[in-house]
């Protein structure tokens, strides 16, 4: 019962909840949009089983309820509805009429508005286009400068204006491209610009390499032009200075012995050079420097200037080493030297231009370093190659090239003092080549000379000689033509050649920027070398030649005397050239006096030597029969021939032209000395013949024959073969022989031994050793040749006397040796 009650209560409570829930659901359905009914209906099925049936029941009840309400409302409003329908039917006709009017109006309106609509659409479309165009123009106005700059960039690249192109790139990157960076073409441009920079960098470096190759090829032409301009400038200055000098005083001597011709105040040489090049060419006229400028600017803009500077300097150093390398045969021709100098000058002219035209590409320190390196190499090369030069003309041209080379580079600010110091070494080489050349000249003159006085037939010939040689002799000038001058033809030729040597030496001193005193000193020193070494050596060799006879030697002595007198004129000649007074403290004197004195003494000595050699030749013909019993009663034939030769020889000395007192004294002195020397040598040779160790035995007959020969020698000496000897001076040459022979011929041993050592001794000149040697030769022949037969026949005591004399002579000889 309770259970049923409980269940009934529970069922009742559940029924109330269900009704309440269904009521809520229905309210939601009524108040909610039909689109959202789904979740509400789903909750009906989610509840207890069979709940949907009860909901359907509830729903049907609600529907019936609403139907009743609708029916009530319809019933309430039905009369009003009917009235409204009636009213509607009344206005139906009016509505249809109005509808027709509205339709007609609408049609007319549509017809009228169709054109307006079309125009309106056209206006709208145009407005849209206008707006688009305005936007496009605005954007294009932003893009056009970029495109114009890029087009400008392309044109600059095509025209190779790379520096401007880099500036344009910089503007594009920093100003223009950022304004329109949203466009793709700008992005492409921005990506292209770095590549273009690298391309410009490569092209500019290629242009620089071409430039370096170009200046290497054109250095020769650049240097030639620069050196020619320097030479023209120097020539012009020298001509102006010469005109100033000529306005004050006319020079006594020209460089070639002639005063140069002048035209309009300038020499013909200067006029020719002035007309040669009126337009002054510079390095810029010969070489286009724009590549190096462009490359420098480009690398500067790219921030890589240091790399460019290092590359340029490195390449120029390499080129400098190539330029400084000479050709192996450069010393053979002047063109080799000229090309060498042209290349160097061209190199440094370019460097100087780069130094001043660019800022920092090369520095003064760099060019100084290059120049010092080049200068050391140049000096070494010139020292080596100039030493190969044997032609003085080539050395002189080399000197002129060095001077122009130095002047050219000095004009560009390079120090060249070491080059002028080198010129002093080259000057020594030049002097050496001159000395060798003039040695050949002197040798030819001596070989072609006839060594006889110069004959002059008339006044013209006489003037021709004295114009070449300063000869003045009042006595000869008074003589009638034809006449003879004392010197031979070689004297004026030698004098003229010495002057030519001075001219040649002077040529080297030109343009060395030295004072007149220094030039004077150089001329005198080189002339001294010519006189003391070259001419002296030629004279010594000439004197020693075998074909030069006594007559030629005498003429050489006369020639050297005249050349000695002419030395003062050579000094005056140098003074006139240099305008340096000989009284200057440090003026060098010419050593010609000593040179010609030495040559004269050598010639005199050679005369004496040749005479003695001739005497020796005659002596060798002597054929004495040393064991002869008696003499022939006359002098030996060889000796008479020798005396006749001496007479004729000294007659040649006597008949030499002695128009001048000094010549007469000189030739007389030489003849006297030669005669005395010949007599002494003859006496010495005869004495040696007697005392020859190979001669073991001598007979008294041989002594008598020998005495006859000595008598002829004494007669020759007393006949005064050469005038000027006083008394028996010449005979004293044979005094030793005479006293020795007298001692043996008279057999006066007692007197000799008694008076030995006394100043008044009759046989003072007889040496005991000489007497002993001859006595022993005679003693040894007594057994075979009966030299002492008369003594053995008369008295054997005389033989003992000889033995006694020999012993006494030996004691004298031993005493002399101990004393000595």
TrEMBL record:
Residues 419-777 form the Exocyst complex subunit EXOC6/Sec15 C-terminal domain. It comes from the Eukaryota. Keywords: Exocytosis, Transport. The keyword Transport applies. One of its GO terms (cellular component) is plasma membrane. The keyword Protein biosynthesis does not apply. One of its GO terms (biological process) is vesicle tethering involved in exocytosis. Residues 58-227 form the Exocyst complex component EXOC6/Sec15 N-terminal domain. Belongs to the SEC15 family. Component of the exocyst complex involved in the docking of exocytic vesicles with fusion sites on the plasma membrane. This is Exocyst complex component. The gene is LOC109099862.
